[in-house]
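FORM 12-B: Structure-to-Sequence Request
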């Protein structure tokens, strides 16, 4: 019977148990949230709350008492400058234990021990788990692809319409070129007409020469 024997031995010697609780308390003050077994969390709670009480006093004696447990100077400074002043209006109850599921393997009861009222704690309570977006069906994906193609075709048509006036403006240059080519065509037609008119004259001259030659031949025969 363990009458009037408080505390848990945790299957460790007194020196080992004291060192383990000191290290766990330093981790809680540094990280402000630690996952451990329920038995260890209940044992270390008193150590952490006593250290915060020393920090609230802020005296030289309190610093020396806290140094017995906290060997890390950075954590000791954080305790007296940051953590303890935030609990001036709170009389005890600086930590919270949240139970978790059993640990796989040895089936030990697990828990989270954290500091109450800290900025990180407030942020965790404010943040809500974002719901995962539902997976889109194949029909929805196809419809989205069709919409994208339609928008692309519309944009292409708009671009073509915007580019069309530029082509119309360039057309007068071609008209000017055609006008410049027209006189050349007229000159070629004039040449053809002159050539056609000169051909009958040449033929008539040839016929007349042939007739004269024939007449001279007849005279010579006579």
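FORM 12-B RESPONSE
SEQUENCE OUT:
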């Amino acid at each position: 019977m363990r009458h009037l024997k408080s505390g848990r031995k945790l299957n460790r010697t007194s020196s080992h148990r004291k060192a383990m609780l000191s290290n766990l308390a330093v981790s809680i003050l540094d990280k402000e949230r630690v996952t451990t077994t329920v038995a260890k969390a209940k044992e270390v709670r008193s150590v952490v709350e006593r250290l915060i009480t020393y920090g609230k006093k802020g005296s030289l004696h309190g610093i020396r008492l806290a140094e017995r447990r906290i060997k890390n100077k950075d954590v000791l400074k954080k305790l007296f400058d940051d953590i303890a002043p935030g609990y001036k209006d709170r009389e005890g109850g600086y930590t919270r234990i949240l139970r978790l599921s059993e640990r796989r393997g040895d089936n030990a009861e697990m828990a989270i021990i954290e500091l109450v009222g800290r900025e990180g704690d407030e942020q965790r309570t404010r943040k809500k788990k974002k719901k995962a977006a539902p997976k889109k069906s194949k029909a929805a994906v196809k419809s989205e692809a069709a919409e994208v193609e339609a928008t692309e075709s519309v944009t292409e048509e708009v671009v073509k319409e915007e580019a069309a006036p530029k082509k119309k403006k360039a057309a007068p240059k071609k008209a000017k070129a055609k006008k410049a080519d027209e006189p050349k065509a007229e000159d070629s037609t004039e040449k053809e007409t002159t050539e056609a008119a000169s051909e009958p004259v040449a033929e008539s001259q040839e016929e007349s020469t042939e007739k004269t030659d024939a007449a001279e031949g007849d005279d010579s025969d006579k």
